[in-house]
Amino acid sequence: MSRARTVAIVALLTAGATIAGCAPAPRDVTIAIRYSAFELAEVSVPQGVPITFVLVNGDPIDHEWLIGDEGFHEKHRSGSHATHGAVATEVSIPALETVRTTITFEEAGRFDYICHLPGHEAYGMVGVLTVEG
Q1: Is the entire prediction scored with pTM above 0.90?
Q2: HSE-CB for 24 with a 13 A CA cutoff
Q3: Best exposed site among 44, 76, 82, 84 by fewest CB in 10 Å?
Q4: How does pLDDT run across 83-120, given as a tens digit for each residue?
């Protein structure tokens, strides 16, 4: 193999590795809901990587999946939002349906995901997401 060809191959491989390093591959996390509970109550994801949450509602009633810090949840406990969907961290999941939302967490930390429909949080519809830096 000629030196020029070897240099060209190494350059292409290096460029590919650089491009791959700049755009982390998205990951899917499935969270099923059954009997008014998140079946995956603890999740860890890497910082800076797009995560697609696949929210599968196996119940015959509606639920929601709201993820954020304590201040975020305090604002939502009042029930001021009837439905969600325009914001990736605020999702309504109709009965027996599946909804997807993609979030990239830029900061490491701990976030709760909760269903704030009346009585659901008190019943235990809470999960914890850890973003690892």
Answers
A1: no
A2: 15
A3: 82
A4: 676 899 999 999 999 999 999 999 999 999 999 999 99
